[in-house]
Every structure is written in structure tokens, then in C-alpha cells.
Amino acid sequence: MSRPIRWGILAPGKIAKKFAEAVRALPDGELVAVGSRAAERAAEFAAAHGIPRAYGSYVELAADPDVQAVYVASPHVGHADHACLCLEAGKAVLCEKPMSVNAAGVRRMRDCARANGRFLMEAMWTRFLPVTAGVRRWLAEGVIGEPRAAIIDFGFRCGWNPASRLLNPELAGGGLLDVGVYTLGYAAMVFGPAEEATGFAHLGETGVDEQASMSLRYPGGKLASIFCSVRTSTPHTARICGTEGSIFVEHFWNAPKAILTRPGKEPEILEQAHEINGFEYEIREVHRCLAAGLIESPDLPVAESLATAETMDQLRAQWQLVFPMER
Ligand SMILES: NC(=O)c1ccc[n+]([C@@H]2O[C@H](COP(=O)([O-])OP(=O)(O)OC[C@H]3O[C@@H](n4cnc5c(N)ncnc54)[C@H](OP(=O)(O)O)[C@@H]3O)[C@@H](O)[C@H]2O)c1
């Protein structure tokens, strides 16, 4: 058996814990290093997750010659710099969503990955979940005919903390970049890149979009109706409507269950619990791509992350939502 992929974690925050749990449970992955802006946080995370090396800077992590792949788990505003730091050091990068704050950031990351011949993928874990894979199979088989419309929402109510990454403009807060990216990514999975996007957003006290309602148009008159929020809870469902049936996905981002409904036929149900915590599927995809010598995942190419970032730029331009680091 070949050696496990040796992972480093950049920024040991909340989501990095989940990633660490998944890698530790996989036989073909190994956590070898963690880097934090503070040595004590790196050491604490390393001790909690059985990681042999802890660094008090991201630069030191990127310079570790034993690290093959880095999971970038800093807030959105850091993604482009941190991913490029690692790519330039010859590492493969799995970067948390959204790939970057804007399309310019994603282009910089794409160019950096290509210039260094290194793997880059957005950590859009939803895309690799077994139920999502089943939905994609249904769509490819044409079981609902031609998909014509999608209705997708992802809203939750975070606590009121203006300094938090969800509400702080300095950290590119707001619903669109935090959870809207899932809804837009799901619609892109069904229809491909959007031709046009429009919508309303409510910019709250901190100036970021607390909630937004959007309409997207795709080639051939296909349409998506999308809602996202960090201040209003919604059911988190995706419904894909085709000429011969529809697919309903419960908690589509976590995808425990999908139901296929067609006139005159019994509904079909796809249901699967995660083997570990749901992150194992995107991690396996990275392992598979690295073993095959790929620098992008065919199931989530960088061009797709870029198209979603361009759509988000288009929407934010309409809302006149410019983050401080973009001025
Ligand atoms: N896939 C998912 O399900 C999922 C879920 C939640 C979040 N995410 C994504 O993961 C990323 C991190 O989210 P999180 O919830 O884990 O955030 P978090 O708990 O705040 O952790 C982020 C970490 O980034 C580091 N960091 C670097 N620059 C920072 C800055 N300027 N301000 C604050 N922290 C900074 C900090 O670690 P050190 O200072 O120790 O280096 C911090 O612990 C976000 O891009 C988010 O969209 C993904």
C-alpha cells in the first residue's frame, strides 16, 4: 500500500477540528503538522489531534518539507494569500469555501496553482457527499427530464457578535459568502455557470448582507430562486424541478436524504449517513486526484469556483457591498 497523504492544517479554528477528525479516521491520510498565528494555539490543537509538529506561523507550516497537502481553514479574507503561500511552497491545497472573497482572488489562486503545477480545490464538501453524488447520477440519467428550475435556501440565525467572521466586514462577513456560496454552487452543479444574477439583500448594522434573495438565469431559460442568510433560519432545502419530475434534498449542504418524485411512479429515496463526519468524501477526492497526478478535481474544477465567485461579485456590485480590503 502507498504511503498516506501527509496533511498540514493552516489555521486551527472551528472547522479545522472537523477536518482533523476526518483525516485521522482515514487510512490513507495522516496529519503531520499544524500552523497557527500563535504557537500556543498550534501546540494545543496538535496535542488535541495527535499531530506531531506545531508551528507558530503559516510560513513555517508551508516550509515543512514533509507536508504534501494543506487544508486552508482561515477566514475567507486569508484564503488567497494562504493558499498561494502553500502552492508556492509546492503543496497541494484544499481551501475552505468560499474559495476567495472575490473572483480576482480566485484567479490569483488559479494562476498560482498552475504556475507551480500544484493541486487546488475549494473545500465544497457538499459536492462529494454520497447523496449529492446520487442526485448527480439522477440528473445525468435524465430521470427528471430536463431540469428547468431550482429553489434552494440556506439561512441560519447566528448570535449577534459584530466582530465575528459572520458579521464583520473586515473578515468579508455576510450570508452570501458564508452560506450563499453553497446555494449558488448547488445550482451550478445542476445548470452550469449562471448567465445573470440579480437580487435583493438586506445590509445590516455592520454593513454586510444579513439576508439575500436572488434570481439566477442559466442558458435555455433555466432559473434558480435562491435565499441565504446568517440572521434568519430557513429549512435548508434544495428542490430541482424538471420536465418529468423533481428532486427534493433535505438539508442539501449536509445531504442526508433526497427524494425523487415522478408523475405516475412511486417516489424513490436516497439516504445515507456519513461514514465519519461528511468531510471524508472531499478528502478522498483530494487523495484520488493526487494519486492520479491531477492538479484539479474533474468534479469541482477551479473554473467552477471562479464562476461562482464571479456571480457573487455581480450580486455584491448590485448591493454596493464592497469589503474594506477591496477598497
Ligand atoms: N465546510 C464547512 O462546513 C465550513 C463550516 C464553517 C466554516 N467554513 C469555512 O472555514 C473558514 C474558517 O471558518 P471557522 O468557522 O473555522 O472560523 P474560526 O473558528 O474563526 O477559525 C478561523 C481561524 O483562522 C485563523 N485566522 C487567521 N486570520 C484570522 C483573522 N484575521 N481573524 C480571525 N481568525 C483568523 C485563526 O487561527 P489562528 O489565529 O490560530 O491561526 C482562527 O482560529 C471560513 O472560510 C468558513 O467559510 C467551512
Outline type: globular
Largest sheet strand order: 8-9-10-7-11-12-13-14
Which spans of ≥5 residues are poorly predicted at pLDDT below 50?
Answer: none
Q: Please give the alpha-carbon distance between the first and last residues.
A: 51 Å
CATH topology of the largest domain: Dihydrodipicolinate Reductase, domain 2
CATH homologous superfamily identity of the largest domain: Dihydrodipicolinate Reductase, domain 2
Present the secondary structure layout.
Layout: E1 5-10, H1 14-25, E2 29-35, H2 39-49, E3 53-55, H3 58-63, E4 69-72, H4 79-88, E5 92-95, H5 103-116, E6 120-122, H6 130-141, E7 147-155, H7 175-191, E8 196-203, E9 209-218, E10 222-229, E11 238-242, E12 245-250, E13 257-261, E14 268-271, H8 280-291, H9 302-319
Helix pairs in contact: 4-5, 5-9, 7-9
Bound molecules: NADP nicotinamide-adenine-dinucleotide phosphate (NAP).
NADP nicotinamide-adenine-dinucleotide phosphate binds near residues 14, 36 and 125.
Structure description:
With 327 residues, the protein is an alpha/beta fold. It folds into 2 domains: 119 residues, 3-Layer(aba) Sandwich (Rossmann fold), CATH 3.40.50.720; 144 residues, Dihydrodipicolinate Reductase, domain 2, CATH 3.30.360. Helix content is 34%, strand content 25%. The chain is built from 9 helices and 14 strands. The chain has an 8-stranded mixed β-sheet, covered by helices on one side. Strands 3-2-1-4-5-6 form a 6-stranded parallel β-sheet, with helices on both faces. Strand 5, helix 5 and strand 6 form a beta-alpha-beta unit. The longest helix has 18 residues. The chain is globular. The chain starts with a strand and ends in an 8-residue tail after the last helix. The model has no long low-confidence stretch (mean pLDDT 98). It binds NADP nicotinamide-adenine-dinucleotide phosphate. The site of NADP nicotinamide-adenine-dinucleotide phosphate has 21 residues, from helix 1.
